[in-house]
């Protein structure tokens, strides 16, 4: 009977919690066990690099709503270490084995550490991914260090720089690319972010690599040595080098999973090494790699808040009902970021874009919409304090309209497509 079916959700963050909610909503009556490697109940991650670092919010005050009334069994602080598909069981680091009939994999990502383990272990070196990371870094910032060095000018690095400046700290931000957010926005739009950082007092240093971190005799970080010469004194270093997907626990399970994520089909069903769906096993959120109808180059993985919610719900529907009844997951990717007084929002995916055009507003005013094209088709739109246009562009992206898709609007000047300036990826040898 359906009431006796056992569900296990591995990953106690946004996708895991919303997946558990959706399982109940879709009619799963049996027990649901939610497994998480952290000791905390599910919480909201976006505030960690913003309001928690600035002291506006306490780390323990950002729990996600919706945790009551689900009749869940919690296994927190107990990482999953293996998956036994023939036995239909998840192995935990505690030695416990959790049998399942339905399994949702939502293990997400972790912060990419500083590559030298000895240097990464120096006191004063931080990454920023979970609640404990944010609490420890907030305590270090509250001590008013003479300088905070942030390595990496992606979204986390830029948001952390904004939070540090908001409490009056001196911040140096270094990155090997020519502008912040270059891999996501391209250097043409990234220059706007660079100008904002400098205007807000951030010592932003593009095309700069940190070669090593130096510590003192007590094991505290004291400085960063730069490639090509030079040295930056810094008692606090934030490593913001992106994320790693949590798939190692699936090694040897027969599931198709690697550093790029857990392979899924369009219905969110996890695939085995032969490319076949595994009965009763689905994945969602940052860890899932799947085909998306808008992106023909192959499977994609998104690290977006809204995507984690929507895909978890879709995966739950797949697990509970006939999967084909719900169709393929095709939600429009979208993200947002707040830095200083600027709100950046995006729809679509800029990957592979070969052109960008400012269709509303102007770069000089830092209030605009930039639309990205690829091979003559509109693939993404990014707004800087101009989000009202994004729904119209999302519809054009979904329809595969020509680039640029909206011309002749009342608040639109001359639209001139430009090279977006995405950095060249180094060749792999």
From TrEMBL:
SUPFAM superfamilies: FAD/NAD(P)-binding domain, FAD/NAD-linked reductases, dimerisation (C-terminal) domain
Region Disordered: start-end pairs: 410-429
Keyword check for Oxidoreductase: yes
Cofactor(s) needed for function: FAD
Membrane-crossing residue ranges in chain numbering: none
Keywords noted in UniProt: FAD, Flavoprotein, Oxidoreductase
UniProt name for this protein: Rhodocoxin reductase
Organism (species): Methylobacterium isbiliense
Lineage: Bacteria, Pseudomonadati, Pseudomonadota, Alphaproteobacteria, Hyphomicrobiales
């Amino acid at each position: 009977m359906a009431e006796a079916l056992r569900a296990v959700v591995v990953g106690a963050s946004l996708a895991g919690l919303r997946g558990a909610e959706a399982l109940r909503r879709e009619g799963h009556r049996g027990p649901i066990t939610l497994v998480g490697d952290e000791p905390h109940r599910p919480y909201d991650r976006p505030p960690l690099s913003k309001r928690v670092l600035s002291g506006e919010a306490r780390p323990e005050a950002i729990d996600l709503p919706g945790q009551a009334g689900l009749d869940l069994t919690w296994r927190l602080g107990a990482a999953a270490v293996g998956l036994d598909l023939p036995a239909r069981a998840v192995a935990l680091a505690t030695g416990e084995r959790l049998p399942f009939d339905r399994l949702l994999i939502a293990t997400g990502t972790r912060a990419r550490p500083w590559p030298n383990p000895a240097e990464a272990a120096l006191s004063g070196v931080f990454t920023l991914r979970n609640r404990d990371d944010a609490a420890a870094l907030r305590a270090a910032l509250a001590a008013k260090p003479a300088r905070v060095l942030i390595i990496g000018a992606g979204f986390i690095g830029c948001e952390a720089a904004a939070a540090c400046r908001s409490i009056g700290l001196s911040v140096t931000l270094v990155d090997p690319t020519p502008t912040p957010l270059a891999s996501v926005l391209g250097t043409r739009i990234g220059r706007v972010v660079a100008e904002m950082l400098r205007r807000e007092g951030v010592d932003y240093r593009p095309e700069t690599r940190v070669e090593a971190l130096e510590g003192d005799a007590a094991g505290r970080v004291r400085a960063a040595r730069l490639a090509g010469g030079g040295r930056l004194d810094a008692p606090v270093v934030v490593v913001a080098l992106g994320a790693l997907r949590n798939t190692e626990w699936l090694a040897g399970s027969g599931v198709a999973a690697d550093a790029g994520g857990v392979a899924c089909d369009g219905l969110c069903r996890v695939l085995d090494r032969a490319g076949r769906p595994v009965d009763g096993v689905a994945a969602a959120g940052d860890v899932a790699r799947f085909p998306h109808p808008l992106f023909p180059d192959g499977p994609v993985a998104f690290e977006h808040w809204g995507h984690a919610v929507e895909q978890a719900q879709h995966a739950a529907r797949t697990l509970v009902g006939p999967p084909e009844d719900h169709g393929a997951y095709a939600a429009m990717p979208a993200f947002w970021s707040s830095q200083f007084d600027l709100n950046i929002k995006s729809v679509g995916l800029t990957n592979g874009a070969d052109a960008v055009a400012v269709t509303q507003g102007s770069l000089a005013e830092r209030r605009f919409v930039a639309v990205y094209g690829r091979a003559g088709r509109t693939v993404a739109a990014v707004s800087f304090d101009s989000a009202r246009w994004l729904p119209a562009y999302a519809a054009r992206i979904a329809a595969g309209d020509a680039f640029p898709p909206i011309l002749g609007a009342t608040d639109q000047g001359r639209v001139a497509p430009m090279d977006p300036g995405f950095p060249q990826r180094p060749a792999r040898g």
